[in-house]
Amino acid sequence: MSDTVMDKGFFAPKGGSKIMEWLFTTDHKRIGMLYLWAILIFFSVGVCLGLALRLELFAPGPTIMTQQAFNAIFTLHGVVMIFLVVIPSIPAAFGNIFLPLQLGAEDVAFPRLNMFSFWLYIVGGGIALTSLFTAGGAPDTGWTFYVPFSSISTTNVSVAVLGVFVLGFSSILTGLNFIVTIHRMRAEGMTWLRMPLFPWALYATAWIQVLATPILSITVLLIAIERLLGMGIFDPARGGDPLLYQHLFWIYSHPAVYIMILPAMGVISDIIPVFCRKPIFGYKTIIGSSLAIAFAGSLVWAHHMFVSGMSDTAVMVFSFLTFIVAVPSAVKVFNWLSTMYKGSIRPEPPLIFALGFIFLFAMGGITGLVLGSAGTDMHVHDTYFVVGHFHFVIFGGTGMGLFASMHYWFPKIYGRMYNKRIATWSAIIIIAGINGLYFPMYLLGLAGMPRRYYDYLPQYTDLHQLSTYGSWITAMGLVLMFWNLWHGRKHGRVVGKNPWGAATLEWTLPSPPPTHNFDEDPIVTHGPYHYDGLIPEEDAVNESEGDK
Amino acid sequence: MHTTDTIKDTEHHGPSYTLFVIIWAILLVLTGVTVYAAEIDLGFLNVVMALSIATIKASLVTFIFMHLKYENLTFKIMVLMAFAILSIFIGLTFFDTAYRVAV
Lengths: 548, 103
What we know:
The structure holds two protein chains of two kinds. By secondary structure, chain A is mainly alpha-helical. Chain A has one domain: Cytochrome c oxidase-like, subunit I domain (Cytochrome C Oxidase, Chain A). Chain A is 67% helix and 1% strand. Chain A is built from 17 helices and two strands. In chain A, strands 1-2 form a two-stranded antiparallel ribbon. In chain A, helix 8 (197-229) packs parallel to helix 10 and helix 12 runs antiparallel to helix 14. Chain B has one domain (9-97). Helix content of chain B is 66%, strand content 0%. Chain B contains three helices and no strands. The radius of gyration of chain B is 19 Å and the shape is flat. Chain B starts with 16 loop residues before the first helix and ends in a 6-residue tail after the last helix. Chains A and B meet through helix 8, helix 9 and helix 11 of A and helix 3 of B.
């Protein structure tokens, strides 16, 4: 089957140097692919670092690395995963490829700016990784770079922070590009309320990127002003306020969590109706909840600082505001479940990943309330409970959202289908692995195990070992999943335009889509979840395979 | 390229050179006022005065030089939103700094 002649679409060489035409492309689909590959490479680096940390913690006392190496590796794991993988993941890769296609546009609004964003991302990533190998060694402050330690650490904090500064600009420009694209580039008939929920989620995300990311840049500039000009901003000895750093850092970094999760929620909202053959339940409510999460999520940053010594009034205000965010998040989960109710469910791999998302995100979200409530947070602050919560939300949420996107749009990008049985098994192994890896962390946290510690008391050994076993299961699932996709892109079964029977515009194009996207400007006459007359091509395939 | 938003590009009437020069002169005068005001001690009002003049100058630049005045409502709302969010960020931070108890 693999030798069937296919149209290569946007992959087709344009003549000239193949490397140059990819590196300097302004085609949103190629830029999205460049992001995707770069993100997956950084992801594998981050996974290896995480596995090394778990291996170190397999037994009390030193095992495979020194204390300094441990501090550097958990910092690097955080910086790589957050700034190079999770923040750009879905918007920069799949947003770039599919936002214009879903809107019926020929490209994003500013294609050259898009290329510039990608290059800022690569340069920023390069600078961040340079901090590892230059004088001073890898930073050991944790990804939060808290003062005063970050100002006295002799490691290469400045270089890593500069990398983060550059990466911030990449994120801002991508957000700006998406806002303008959504406002200006929609096809005829693509009204705001006919837009699929993925563009809506990207829209909410883009506003956070544009409004919150500059604060990170300002914070970094303030650090530079303090160091170079000797002005007291964060240093109390010079009249500064160390808590101001935490405020400024979290004013960006908390909304950044929603930059991470909202696009994944958008993908899930697009996938679930397709595989249940039913319009999404509460379309407008999901839009409203995305915007509400983006807004309310920007007002809750100080819940990271309940034990920092800030005023009790602030503790109460921010604890209250935090609970407000739980409402729109729960609205989404209930809407997804209601969409599935009485649906004609097809358990294809993207849906399995999406269900994994709902389960794991719910585990992370509900434990978030334990942390958002100031009273209980006092007990579990800075313990493994926080680590468990964060990884359930981000790996179980955004990670599963990314994997769901990869499996959902794979046939559109490559025009081929991966092995669905292996994909389903890999999803199950990853979901089991994530539970094994992070659930023991909740128990460790409740038992008082502090985060970021190199060593621990013997009574924590069993749970730490359980968590490390979980990390191996997760890694096996990831290897299986990536191998399956890698193999499928060249040797998979050739599929048609619309294997899943989806109703959004990208599925009206050939797979892979041509460089210019649409031959004729599409005219949209119905909503994105209108499945009348659309029969999934995969149904016939599944049936014939079932007969064998 | 097609769009569903109302674009009124053709209806834009950019500001004239005369207006640019007048605004420039006003900005220069306001700079002078800032320098002059810095020499008078108004107590707490020092900061209020300096920020008020700066706000007027920034608004003139945004509305005239950056053409916000001639753009449609969507852009005005977007810019306003950025300022609103900024004031909320600063305002909420005061729940901490204004209510701290000296230890």
